[in-house]
Design a protein that fits this description.
It is built from five helices and eight strands, in the order E-E-E-H-E-H-E-E-E-E-H-H-H. By secondary structure, the protein is α+β, with helices and mostly antiparallel strands. The strands form two sheets. The chain has a six-stranded antiparallel beta barrel. Strands 5-6 form a two-stranded antiparallel sheet.
Length: 189
Amino acid sequence: MIDLEEFGIQEGISEIIFTSMSIEGIPNAAPIGLHMKNGRLFAMIYKSKTLENIIEKPTAAANIVDDPVLFVQSALSDIEPQKFEFVEGTPVLKRVLGWIIFDCRIKKGENISVVELLAVRSKILQRKIKPINRGFNAVIEATVHATRYVVLKEQKYLDYIDQYNTIVQKCGGPGEKEAMKLLYDLIRL
Ligand SMILES: Cc1cc2nc3c(=O)[nH]c(=O)nc-3n(C[C@H](O)[C@H](O)[C@H](O)COP(=O)(O)O)c2cc1C
């Protein structure tokens, strides 16, 4: 049995990059929050490529990632095919701390679908000591607002992004600053 705690997944919401594949064999990646409740793991997924893919092929992976650029890129554009590898036909990302492959049980909803995730295979590639960096956390918050901005185009999301950018510029390292630059480039397209 796979111990999700070993992957840092605990009660509450864990932000990971979810990888899935279409029936044509095209891999996709997007940040998704995994909700752990009473020992069961769920994702709440809006209409998206990710949802289409797991409806077609109900297997996907949670990639545990600490690269801020990968979060921005997978949220707002596509990850290059060479950044994926395949484990028994399921796409995972190559440069990750670890991954967990799941069978997906989907309860389709009008706007949002609830997906129970049953772990079937997992791997830890890297164990790292890492203090909290407010710049990294700010990139994640800004990226959540960016995914709302691209759909709803409301000014308030740009204001939130600018506020988080102030923290990124103060506390972030080169990776966080690069991620923020990419975020602004992608929402201005
Ligand atoms: C940190 C973070 C967490 C997210 N969590 C979710 C989520 O739990 N469910 C969801 O539907 N979208 C979530 N999103 C938004 C999706 O990643 C975004 O809509 C993405 O563009 C979907 O890509 P796709 O169409 O390739 O699947 C999240 C975004 C970020 C940045």
